[in-house]
Fold this sequence. Notes:
Helices cover 40% and strands 15% of the residues.
Amino acid sequence: MDRLLVLARHGQSDWNLKNLFTGWKNVELTDLGVQEARAAGQRLKQRGIGFDVVFTSDLMRAQKTCQLILEELGQTNIEVIHDQALNERDYGDLTGLNKDDARQRWGEEQVHIWRRSYDVAPPGGESLKDTVARALPYYVTNILPRVMQGQRVLVAAHGNSLRALIMVLDRLNSQTIPGVELSTGVPLVYKLDADTSVIEKTILEA
């Protein structure tokens, strides 16, 4: 039984390139983001990894990344499940602001707290703790059971919603998870044991 779970952050988006807080805003992938997503699919194909089901967010940058990966794998007809539980963290009033402009407005220290603390939310937005509170139950209820049935599962989502899953998979805590960096378009391949613990983790970097 495989018990294979692959996590992939979306490829570079237009707002990633412009250094803007994106959150729940729907933005397109850049040309580089498209290349990153296709390259992710190619690296998975080289490893002989295909999927039975895919989970993604309600945001089009993750959905497009998912689509491009599946195109490279020749698997465009498999089941794809969308849910906003896997959406990026909502940055509230910071959404659409350049990160440097935000630092000038609120100060370097305050913006760093909003970005890198576990439980401090920006005005009108979510903390990482809030994101974990919606993404993790969805993982436990909807994604993990499919993995434990022996299905090969891809989750194409966002930096912060994927941190919620990594927090459990890598046995991290509220102090260590905010510092975890996820590169765009780089798949993380997990093999799970029968008790849901991780047997093996591979990062498929270029």
